[in-house]
UniProtKB/TrEMBL annotation:
Alphabetized InterPro entries for the sequence: Ala_racemase, Ala_racemase_N, PLP-binding_barrel
GO CC, one annotated term: cytosol
Source taxon at top rank: Bacteria
Keywords assigned by UniProt, alphabetized: Isomerase, Pyridoxal phosphate
Protein name: Alanine/ornithine racemase family PLP-dependent enzyme
Length: 356
């Protein structure tokens, strides 16, 4: 069976790098754990780093966090569904919101649970996912300030998550100005401007972060060390916190071109044949994972000579080239993962998860 390994020392290395980066700039931050898909062992490793604030998009994952350490501040990072309001108030200390009707329900539920529920109101800044439109911000805040058992702890935005709109100094300045406008209008303090995510770290490294942006929520760069502007590893960070291992279950030299009449495969793909491949062969290894576990484009083989050439539901085919490279049946191939690939693997019950 294929398995995933999380390396504690590499995770701690990246966490220490980020903690220093934020502390030097007087920025508060929390770790996003949605990638871990509620795996209690992995979440415990994150909390044991000294994390005081955890962000997640699944209530059940925040319940795991509270079970491990009730003192960790939990943040629900998408607008709550009305049918989950009671659970959000129970397990999330803070939630992201953009609809007044939902915040009103949170207010009512918080009163029933005798709690003060914190919210971050999300502002639309161009990526067209969640967020109140800028022209409606003042009116929106005026209504929310009247609700009991609700504490507006921040103003925030999401960028790059849907249409790929990148953060910029101008957009983050605009977000900071909304905060100043609201505070001046209502004489209320808004502690956080939560404009920072992994994709914003490159601006921070270039000292292009507006000083008003004082809160970050970070996941991808912690686990992968990736600069999402350049798509290269940030200098001083590790890109192999996670490694996937899969076993070779068949290895033969075979033709490069299929034999017979071609039709669409079960994935709806029709193979385009390179005429230069007729008559050629290569060594092909089959490994014990498939599309059910991960999409091939999210795999990065540690051996650069390997190429994923095909996939079915439970098996992937790896082209080894003109030699076996000393590989044989039973050997393990190792891979680094892209974010969405790790998300698939961590959400799969068929892949063992280990801690090294």
């Amino acid at each position: 069976m294929a398995f995933l390994e999380l390396y504690k020392d590499r995770l701690k290395h990246n966490y220490t790098y980020l903690e220093k980066l934020f502390k030097q700039r007087h920025i508060e931050w929390g770790v996003v754990t949605k990638l871990l898909c509620g795996n209690e062992d992995y979440i415990r490793e994150v909390i044991d780093l000294g994390v005081k604030e955890v962000h997640d998009s699944r209530i059940s994952n925040l319940e795991v966090v509270k079970r491990i350490d009730p003192n960790v501040q939990t943040v629900y990072i998408k607008p709550p569904a009305k049918r989950s309001i009671s659970q959000v108030v129970k397990f999330a200390d803070v939630s992201f919101n953009s609809s007044f009707s939902t915040i009103k329900l949170l207010s009512e539920e918080a009163a029933r649970q005798n709690k003060m529920h914190k919210i971050i109101i999300m502002i639309e800044m161009g990526d067209l996912r969640e967020g109140v439109l800028g022209e409606n911000v003042i009116e929106f805040y005026a209504k929310v300030f009247e609700l009991p058992n609700i504490n507006i702890t921040g103003i925030g935005t999401n960028l790059n998550c849907l249409h790929g709109v990148m953060p910029s100094q101008d957009k983050l300045i605009q977000l900071s100005l909304y905060k100043q406008l609201i505070e001046a209008k209502f004489n209320r303090e808004i502690p956080w401007v939560s404009g920072g995510t992994s994709v914003t770290i490159p601006l921070l490294l270039k000292e292009m972060r507006p000083m008003g942006v004082n809160h970050f929520r970070v996941g991808e760069i912690l686990y992968f060390g990736l600069n999402l502007f350049t798509m290269k590893t940030v200098e001083g960070m590790k890109d192999d916190v996670f490694k996937l291992y899969a076993e070779i279950i068949e290895l033969y030299e075979k033709p490069k071109v299929p034999i017979g009449e071609l039709a669409e495969n079960p994935s709806g793909e029709l193979l385009e044949i390179n005429e230069d491949d007729y008559g050629k062969t290569s060594y092909r290894a089959i490994i014990d994972i498939g599309l059910l576990d991960i999409s091939p484009e999210y795999l990065i083989p540690d051996d650069p000579k390997l190429e994923v050439t095909g996939a079915s539901s439970d098996m992937l085919v790896i082209d080894l080239g003109q030699t076996t490279g000393n590989y044989q049946v039973g050997d393990l191939l190792s891979f680094k993962l892209r974010y969405m690939g790790a998300l698939s693997i961590l959400n799969s019950d068929y892949i063992d998860k280990k801690i090294i």
